[in-house]
Backbone:
């Protein structure tokens, strides 16, 4: 089954110049299946789009999707809707989770799972103390607000889906139901998007497998954001998801 790798990109020219996309392509050429890489330029203010366009001109497997700046959820929805592969993986440009970790996810699709997600666990090796505290707080909040604790790491930016199930899920989202149409200012990580996507998937009876992966948090600095702001927004998103669920809006 062909693999589509969707990479949201907001001001990622430095990573592209450092050869990150070339490293991703080198691995995928040897992974034993057909593939495409979709870089979704989320209205970058640097040369992200131009550098990707140059690479795509030389590499037919690379596609550039250009969008107005709307945040990470906005970019992911546009990229996954544009994907052509039977399996769609989203990954971050900084490659804090190396693309090679996809080899741990793909076999689970052969066992019948609809969604396979990478998990950094609770230890979060190399993560700062504040990031670890936030991670524990997020897990507790998901349990208290949604009763959603069987997935340890909903926020890991390394998730794979059968395309046939993930695209219809976008139409089931309530809080992020218009993520592909939104506009934003500055870095915007859309903290509740992953939670709502997985919550809606569980409500639809889709099978989800969480798989431990390697993550180097020292590399994960692609989008500078406020931990406090994102935590507050994340809690607000959880409350909105709970409200929508109580009204039966996830079917």
Residues:
């Amino acid at each position: 089954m062909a693999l589509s790798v969707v990479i949201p990109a907001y001001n990622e020219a430095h990573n592209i110049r450092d050869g990150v996309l070339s490293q991703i392509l080198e691995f995928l050429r040897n992974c034993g299946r057909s593939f495409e890489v979709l870089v979704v330029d989320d209205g970058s203010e640097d040369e992200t789009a131009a550098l990707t366009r140059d690479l795509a001109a030389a590499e037919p497997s690379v596609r550039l999707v250009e969008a107005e700046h709307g945040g990470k959820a906005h970019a992911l929805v546009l990229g996954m809707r544009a994907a052509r592969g039977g399996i769609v993986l989203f990954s971050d440009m900084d490659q804090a989770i190396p693309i090679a970790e996809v080899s741990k996810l793909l076999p689970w699709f052969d066992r019948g799972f609809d969604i396979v997600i990478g998990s950094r666990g609770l230890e979060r090796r190399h993560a700062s103390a504040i990031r670890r505290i936030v991670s524990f707080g997020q897990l507790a909040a998901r349990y208290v607000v949604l009763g959603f604790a069987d997935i340890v790491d909903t926020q890991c930016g390394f998730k794979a889906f059968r395309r046939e199930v993930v695209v219809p899920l976008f139409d089931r989202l309530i809080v992020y139901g218009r993520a592909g149409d939104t506009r934003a200012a500055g870095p915007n990580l859309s903290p509740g998007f992953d939670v709502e996507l997985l919550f809606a998937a569980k409500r639809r009876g889709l099978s989800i497998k969480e798989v431990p992966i390697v993550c180097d948090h020292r590399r994960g600095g692609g989008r500078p954001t406020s931990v406090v702001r994102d935590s507050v927004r994340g809690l607000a998103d959880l409350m909105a998801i709970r409200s929508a669920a109580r009204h039966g809006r996830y079917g």
About this structure: The chain is about 40% helix and 15% strand.
